[in-house]
Amino acid sequence: MERKDTARIVAEKIVEVWDELLNSEVVGIPHLVGRISSDGGEVEMSLVFFDEPTYERIIEDGCVSFTFPLEVKDPKELFMSLLKFIREGTTPSILEPGEKIKELLRRI
Predict the structure, then answer these.
(1) Among 97, 75, 87, which Cα is nearest to 12's?
(2) C-alpha span between 65 and 75 (Å, rounded)
(3) Rounded to whole angstroms, how far apart are CA atoms 99 and 3?
(4) What is the full per-residue pLDDT of the chain (108 aa) written as tens digits?
(5) What residues contact 3, with CB distance under 8 A and at least 6 apart?
(6) Among 9, 16, 58, 66, which residue is least crowded by beta carbons within 10 Å?
């Protein structure tokens, strides 16, 4: 299966999970927990709630398993963030209260 097909399947699964989230009672921080086979033929995703944001990416036996918090405002943003996390293992940078900014946020 091509990457394009895998991305489409992931997008469809995200829409399903997003609809589930909108119709659920939120009891914690919502997360996507899933697994994608290396050939993209198998894509599984579930909505799970945790007390703390949890980022986890495990690559083994030709599959990527992941746990990713839904800290975004829409499914498109979730799709882009999740794909970046799966491909690169990078998490969104979050400023914590009291954290010092070490460089200019943008140049004027």
Answers:
(1) 75
(2) 20
(3) 38
(4) 345 588 888 999 999 999 999 888 888 999 999 999 877 678 999 999 999 999 999 998 889 999 999 988 889 989 988 888 888 877 665 555 565 555 555 554
(5) 40
(6) 58
